[in-house]
Amino acid sequence: MSRSITKAVIPVAGLGTRVLPASKAIPKEMMTVVDKPVIQHVIEEAVAAGITEIVLVTRSGKASIEDHFDCHYELEAELERKGKTTILDSVRNIIPDNVSITTVRQHRALGLGHAVLCASPVIGDEDFAVLLPDMLINSHGLETADLTAMASAYEQTGIGQIMVEPVPMEHVERYGVVDCSGVELSGGDTADIIRMVEKPPMNEAPSNLTINGRYILPSRIMELLKNTKPGAGGEIQLTDAMADFLKEGTLQAFHMQGKTYDCGNKAGYLQANVIYGLQNPETSASLKTFIQTLDL
Ligand code: G1P
Questions:
Q1: CA distances from 156 to 1, 117, 149, 195 (A)
Q2: What is the pLDDT of residue 2?
Q3: 46: which of 4, 73, 155, 294 lies 20 to 30 Å off by Cα?
Q4: What is the pLDDT of residue 269?
Q5: What's the pLDDT score for residue 88?
Q6: 15 alpha carbon to ligand 1 midpoint, in Å?
Q7: Is 70 exceeded by the pLDDT of residue 107?
């Protein structure tokens, strides 16, 4: 079976409570990592993996996200007049011409599963990707970026792929956790998932392999989400719809090779800025020198 994934849902309606007060008047997705908002890093990752239709699930107060990917005529005209072509290029060509961004609204904060379901009129009956914008997946130095490798695994098998990574056992209760019957996975490997559970207590977790916010899902998930009841935290959970899918089909865990930075919390956000700053040709040398001068 051969097919490719072209549509992605990115839920951006969250309140950003873990990064307050920074996210009081700006969406947390617009906080910058080095020189771009977090959401731009995530959309670039999606585009690099072959996505051409992005559906942002948004809410009131988040319009600056849409503005960021829109044309800014005045700014562009001014930069053009001044001959600042490099900067002009960076604001004009944020996404390639063949990529579209659509927005749908999530009127009530009923959970991640509900947010994904809000995108169903745009997704239709196609298989689709989901990218959680809090999580930056850094594939620097890898031959193939993790999401791109996941998309290829899906293309070859037609089976939905869920990106996972091991975390210390005491952290599993923050995440969706998968059970791959104890199969030992290393970077780039996939294995069938037999069970998954959202935010289990440590002593009930089937493994330490956690879902880190990248999914390629069968269209059937949208149908299942319509009947998914509130689960962990009283929210409609995407993990519960995927667990229902396992009763009728197969999903695979894809063990990432790169590194995850959770920009939805302050420490993860700072770490992302350091790492992305060290990887950015414009900032790496001076940041490295600065870090070396620190008396830690
Ligand atoms: C969501 C998912 C969870 C996943 C996590 C990754 O949880 O429900 O399965 O492990 O994202 O960040 P949230 O962080 O929205 O509570």
A1: 6, 26, 11, 23
A2: 55
A3: 73
A4: 96
A5: 86
A6: 14
A7: yes
Please, which pLDDT band fits residue 55 given cuts at 50, 70 and 90? very high
The structure's pTM equals 0.95
| Binding pocket residue ranges, ligand 1, CB within 6 Å | 112, 132, 134-135, 175-176, 198, 210-213, 237-239
Q: Within 10 Å of residue 265's Cβ, how many Cβ atoms?
A: 14
Mutation choice for ligand 1 from 18, 132, 228, CB with most ligand atoms inside 8 A: 132
CB atoms within 10 A of CB 140: 11
**CA 116 – ligand 1 centroid, Å:** 13
**22 or 99, which is more confident:** 99
Alpha carbon distance 270, 274 (integer Å) = 6
Q: Which residue in 260, 258, 256 sits closest to 189, CA to CA?
A: 256
Integer distance in angstroms from the first to the last C-alpha of the chain?
54
Q: Which atom of ligand 1 is nearest to the CA of 213?
A: 6
